[in-house]
Amino acid sequence: MDGVNLQKENQNLKDVNRELDAIIENSYDGIYITDKNGVTLKTNSAIERITGIPKEYYIGKNVKDLIKRGILKNSVTRKVVEEKRTVSLVQNNYEGNETLLTGTPVFNENGEVEKVVTNIRDLSDLNKLQIELRKANQLNTQYKKELERLKNKPDQVKGIVTKSKSMKQIYDSATRIANIDATVLILGETGVGKDVLAHYIYTNSNRSQKGDFIKINCGAIPPDLLESELFGYEGGAFTGASRDGKPGMFELAHKGILFLDEIGELPLSLQVKLLRVLQEGEIQRVGGTKPKKIDVRIFAATNKDLQKMVEDSDFREDLYYRLNVIPLEIPPLRNRREDILPLIQQFLDEVNNKYQLNKEFDYDLQDFFLSYEWPGNIRELFNLIERLAVTSREDIINIDSLPEEYLTTNKLTANVIVPLKEAVEMAEKKVIALAAEKYTNTYELAKALNTSQPTIVRKLKKYNIHLK
Question: Which residue spans adopt a coiled-coil conformation according to this UniProt entry (predicted)?
């Protein structure tokens, strides 16, 4: 090789070394090169950032000496030479930061380890990033839950309208107590939506992921059957009982919520057993001998005055206070008229979709809806809307389509002059109809209206009014 080519080759070698030095020097990770004996040949400035010790300090030093001085805790170089393969280990450096050391062997022509190139990565930044990512994920989960809560605010949930201040307060309270495992007593007139509120609380609680929402109407089941429905029974406990027995509502609601509707109708004998469940968290099947632990949250609802029932000894005082831990009272529809028009639109949309209709209410009919007293509350409103939608021939429904009993009420409230006898009959019909919503037999009705039972029977027939 002549002098010119030799000089050129030498220049090329210098260029390659300079590029290699630049690559090593500008690496974000620490680069640490030793010979097979562990003597440091080369390193870069990143090692100073990672360890806090200038890179010049390492040159010529043996890793054994660095370990003795506490700068290193373990030698990856020695393991690479012994095992003749790439080795990784994690250790804390001189400043206490966690680092990942990866040693890679460089072999000579005889297959022997000649040098060891160690890559040093500071894990503290990565750990910080992981912590920040974990926090971000937690926040993201919280934001998702909050967005879901906002998206499912009561005034946007099917069947629930809370435009009025009173209803917003009730559903705000319901949201707050959803995951508090205390008994809830929901009060309100017939048809105000007590079961809807109960199911809303369940849906927004952790129990909705663990157990079922079980509802039982305490007034709809004969007293002699109610006990077995609530607590279940063992096989052969009574005539006609299944040989295998049957779980009751409490067992079916395990880990979930049991909604006791019309709790005021619960017989005194069963009130004692319910009190035991609330106190001890266990039930005993009819015909059984061993109590069984259950995890059930109790919701109760009634349209009756339980305090008065306690005074009259019709309801146990101790049970009343056990149930009345978190009372929520839903106001009647006539006391929250801001909710009426949104409810009308919601119910009409549901009915139109159900029956493939395209019905609308004119202004006068909507005005009637706003002024009517709604003794049956939301249930009555929905039933009337459905009735009008399916029976009216016109798509635009007016006030003349109202059933006769509503037209009579409308005349009484619209300052219309009618014959005195007709006015008396209309007023009488309205009073009897309102009382019939509350009382279940003619004896109670006659007593409430201070008249005789035969008179009530005759008037009911005359005005075509039916008791519930």
Answer: 126-153
Tokens for 144?
């998702």
Strands laid side by side in the 98-107 sheet: 40-43, 30-35, 113-122, 98-107, 87-92
Rounded Cα distance between 354 and 454, Å, is: 43
Any bridge partners for residue 213, and if so which?
A: 257
Domain ranges of the chain: 3-125, 160-331, 334-463
Find out whether 203 and 212 touch, Cβ atoms under 8 Å: no
41 backbone dihedrals φ, ψ, rounded to 5°: -100, -35
**Token output for 299:** 């919701």
Rounded Cα–Cα distance for residues 409 and 412 (Å): 5
Q: Looking up tokens 């075509």, which residue turns up? A: 464
Quick one: pLDDT at residue 37? 86
Task: Work out the widest C-alpha separation in the chain, in whole angstroms.
Answer: 137
Q: Write down the CATH superfamily of domain 3-125.
A: PAS domain (3.30.450.20)
**DSSP at 154:** G
* Cβ(117)–Cβ(107) below 8 Å: no
Identify the CATH number of the domain defined by range 334-463.
1.10.8.60
Helices 404-413 and 420-438: angle between axes, nearest 10 degrees: 120
Domain boundaries 160-331, CATH class: alpha beta
Per-residue burial over 80-111, b = 16 or more CB atoms within 10 Å of its CB, e = otherwise: bbeeeeebeeeeebbeebebebbbebeeeeee
Residue type at position 245: G
Residues 6+ apart with CB under 8 A from 216: 229, 230, 249, 258, 259, 260, 261
CB 326 within 8 A of CB 213: no
Burial 419-447, CB ≥16 within 10 A → b, else e = eeeeeebbeebbebbebbbebeebeebbe
How many Cα atoms within 13 Å fall on the side-chain side of residue 161?
17
- What six digits make up the tokens of 426? 């209309």
> To which residue do tokens 């007709």 refer?
422
Determine the Cα–Cα distance for residues 64 and 56; give it in Å rounded to an integer.
17
Is 0.70 surpassed by the pTM of this model?
Answer: no
DSSP 320-359: HHHHTTEEEEPPPGGG-GGGHHHHHHHHHHHHHHHHT---
Q: How far apart are CA 305 and CA 303, in angstroms?
A: 7
The mean pLDDT values, 10 residues at a time, for the chain of 468 residues are: 67 76 81 86 84 82 79 77 85 69 86 86 75 78 63 57 88 93 95 94 94 94 89 73 80 96 94 93 87 95 94 94 96 92 92 94 89 91 95 92 78 56 74 82 85 86 79
